[in-house]
Amino acid sequence: AGAAAGAAAGAAAGAAVGATAASRKSSAPDPSGGYEFSIDDSSTPLRVRLDASDVRALRRLCDALARSLKKKVLAKKKLDANSDAGAAACLQYVKTVFLANSDGGVCAKSGFDESCRELVEMDGMDDTERNTCSTLLQSLFFSFDRAEQSSVDVCEIINGFSILCGGSKSTKLAFAFDVLDTKGKGALSRRSLWRFFRAFLTALCAFSFESGADRDPHETGVAVDAAAIWTATKVFEKKEVDRANRATFNDIAQWYGEGGYTKAPWLELLDLRKWVHDDSQ
Predict the structure, then answer these.
(1) How far apart are the C-alpha atoms of 265 and 243, rounded to whole Å?
(2) Residues 6+ apart with CB under 8 A from 258
(3) How far apart (Å, rounded) are the C-alpha atoms in residues 119 and 248?
(4) For a tag on the chain, would you pick the N or C end, based on fewer CB atoms within 10 A?
(5) Where is the EF-hand domain (predicted)?
(6) Cα–Cα distance between 46 and 254 in angstroms, integer?
(7) DSSP E strands: which ranges in 22-78?
(8) CB 190 within 8 A of CB 232
(9) pLDDT digit string (tens) for 250-269?
(10) Which helix (H) or strand (E) segment is 247 a member of?
(11) pLDDT per position as a tens digit, 136-166
């Protein structure tokens, strides 16, 4: 039911999300060739800067993942990597792999490592490329391991990992919504919507590995939580969103299209074609 709800939501509202600011840069270009964004109105301001070295490292990891998914998913299903169907199939495969290596909604470090081995083939990489990919993946895991228990929430790590995959912003948002809508009700609670935004923000902070090396992990986690709560609150401020404190995907799409893109322009970074694979970088 959850997948059906997500697919329906994507079909009904994806165009509304994607059409808004389609040609707009999601964050301010950095003079050094990277990107940066900030959320200053939350209780603890969040500032994220991805410099040129971060973008190059991320491109290596995304390319390695794309090669693997092309062989394991796209070739078998005869799907185009640039199509919505191809992107959705790859995202579902990522979800399946992580769920298979998790237990009770929790993904241990060993399960994360096994998932990454299945998803990112590093055979044939030189030492530099292998180290770069491994470092970014480890940064991703430990950014989500806030309690330092060597385990993470599997839904959040799936949604954070989804940024690395191909596909439009709309496709990834619909996928992430579906991942958190575990009961297939077609709506997320305030807490789930907070987790929805938090997963993406956590991953983006993890990917700013070089530029954020001196950042305190605890302080970053507090700022990410505050920014995610602030963003979710903005969605619920729309008077139409009052169904027992639950928001549908259409609610999110409408909020974004009617000005939410000025509150959360960083969501544009979900589409790698706008920055990681931008030829100007």
Answers:
(1) 26
(2) 238
(3) 30
(4) N
(5) 168-203
(6) 25
(7) 28-29, 35-39, 46-50
(8) yes
(9) 999 999 999 999 999 999 99
(10) strand 246-247
(11) 999 999 999 999 999 999 999 999 999 999 9
